[in-house]
Amino acid sequence: MMKNIVLTGFMGTGKTEVGRLLARRLGYKFIDADSVIEEEQKIPITEIFKRFGEPYFRDIESNLIKRLSEMEGVVISTGGGAVLREENMNNLRKKGVIVCLMASPETIFERTKNDTSRPLLQVQDPLQRIRELLEFRRPFYEKADIMIDTDGKTPQEVTEEIIKKIQPPGSENNKSGIK
Hints:
Blueprint: E1 4-9, H1 15-26, E2 29-32, H2 33-41, H3 45-52, H4 54-68, E3 74-77, H5 86-95, E4 96-102, H6 105-112, H7 126-141, E5 146-149, H8 155-166
């Protein structure tokens, strides 16, 4: 069995869309951590941030990641800030390969500007906020096993690039059906 694939990266880098495509291609189950949190908490993440604050949300997220990291045969899309806690990265790495999707601040802004469900971007100057958060999180994102720039690429192209990078050389005839 190949390792789980864990997608990290800033909001708007394509984790959910690429994650779905990747899971389909690999015959894995796709799990969006943020969606699971909203389902289990029965309120949107924006509400969790508003009512209880970011640290409370990060605790819920860490508990979920601990559970998800025990599973096998899954593609996990994490929230953009999941990388901030070392315990999350350690748990995810146990059975997974961590792939960080990157994009420029301008690309992220374009992809997220009409999305009101992003609590960290509900500010006066969202582009400046994206730059600040990216700069702060960069060292955390760089702890991923694989970094992939998604600027100017379709989700299909990003998916293909991930598959190429996670396949060990000479495994073209592997049993997973990946070509």
